[in-house]
Design brief:
This protein has five helices and three strands. It has 120 residues and is an alpha/beta fold. It has a three-stranded parallel sheet with strand order 1-2-3, covered by helices on one side.
């Protein structure tokens, strides 16, 4: 059983069974210090051992990080360094195409990869 907060990666990896929670990366088992939520989340995830009957099944858990999904817009943005304004963007320029270390990596890459949405 895999517990995941990265649905597209979980689908690509195809573990035997997985429970997906739509929480930010690093918070897959719940919010820090929220013991009741963590217990409820883990209990629901573990029900998958009884409920999922096919290899590759992914169960979406019924938990929300926030009622409004605006948190997803900011989750992939790095925090601005001290003293930088909220509108500053200190990252390196973005390229229109993925960059690879080796040509063989480029040849093996799947141009339709759903986990590469942040490269465009």
């Amino acid at each position: 059983m895999c517990l995941s907060s990265a649905l597209s990666i979980t689908r690509a990896v195809r573990p035997p069974r997985a429970s997906f929670v739509d929480f930010p990366l690093g918070h897959t088992s719940g919010r820090p210090h929220a013991l009741d939520e963590q217990i409820a989340l883990m209990s629901e995830a573990l029900k998958g051992f009884e409920e999922m009957t096919h290899s590759g099944d992914i169960k979406t858990l019924p938990f929300e990080w926030q009622p409004d999904h605006g948190w997803k817009d900011a989750v992939m943005r790095p925090a601005a360094p001290d003293g930088a304004g909220a509108d500053s963007d200190f990252r390196l320029p973005r390229l229109d195409t993925p960059q690879y270390q080796f040509e063989s990596d480029a040849e093996a890459a799947d141009s339709g990869c759903p986990t590469c949405v942040f490269l465009a």
